[in-house]
Amino acid sequence: MSKKNSSSPSPKLPGFNARVKKVTAAHKAFLNRPNPVDRDWENGVFERFQHPVLTAHHVPLAWRYDFNPQTNPHFMERMGVGGAYNPGAFLWKGKPHLVARVEGADRKSFFAIAASKDGVSKFKFWDEPCDIPEIAGETNLYDMRVVFHEDGWIYGIFCAESKDPQAAPGDLSSAIAQAGIVRTKDFRQWERLPNLKTPSSQQRNVVLHPEWVNGQYAFYTRPMDGFIDVGSGGGIGWTLLKDIAKGRTGKETIWDYPQKVDSRHSGFSWIGFRSQSGRCSRLKNGGGAGCRRLRSIRTWPAWRGNDLGSYGGRCARS
To answer: Tens of pLDDT along 221-268?
Structure first.
């Protein structure tokens, strides 16, 4: 499935050549379509754009199709992709980037980075997915959040999922969720660090604070009783870590308790950021019906806020 094959199909298979040309042209047009503001939607705070900025259709054809006419004479998609969503956003070399969770038809995910000039249109994936080292026993990795820490490293915090040894035979809904950690200098070479070890049995949606707090690494956490529990053991937490190479934190303090909602996929997390006024603020990501809708359509809508700093919140720094 090389680009060389995709650009020079065999002249002896006109049907194959015609389909490659048609699919390639349609994909190019899709990637280059404009994404104007949706004038029929407004709330005075955000602008919403007409098209999702990243979807399964953005995934390169060479990742999904076999361009060999001998093994794929009808040019059918071989490696199906169900969605590209839950991305972590970052600015790199003057361009907005997204490191997305790309989920295959087998429901297993990998990370891939897409870039855009304006952050709302014409996102294109890098030539290759991220090569993330795995820890023995892991079955899935997803939902990375990128943080440029003042220690000089770029960190990616994500959910590392492994099989629950206590799950009953045939139980595909039980798992152990932990916060995986990688770091990089260039988004090409990734160093895997130990998973975050907190007082809680499971973690999801963990975010690293970009600055030192009392000389330690600081994490916003989302402790859970179980893999899909949203009961009393959950909430939004805060914990400090002395040595990120060891991963064991100190006490975990719960700051905010979520309301009980009827959804197995409800997610809550905080993202710390500094506004233009210099205040350290936070955004809280909620779950419920809106979360289910985003997950069902497997897209990431484009939003642009006028004044996120006005939403404020208490500063996480001491």
So the answer is: 988 766 555 444 567 889 999 999 999 999 998 876 655 444 444 455
Is there a domain that residue 253 lies in? Answer: no
CA 97 to chain centre: 11
Element (H, E) at 18: helix 14-31
The verdict on residue 83 lying in a domain is: yes
The 10s digit of each residue's pLDDT in 183-234 is 999 999 999 999 999 998 889 889 999 999 999 999 999 887 665 554 445 6
Contacts 24+ apart (CB under 8 A), 277-282: 277/309, 279/309, 279/312, 279/315, 280/315, 280/316, 280/317, 281/308, 281/309, 281/311, 281/312, 281/313, 281/315, 282/220, 282/313, 282/314, 282/316
Task: Count structural domains, the chain.
Answer: 1
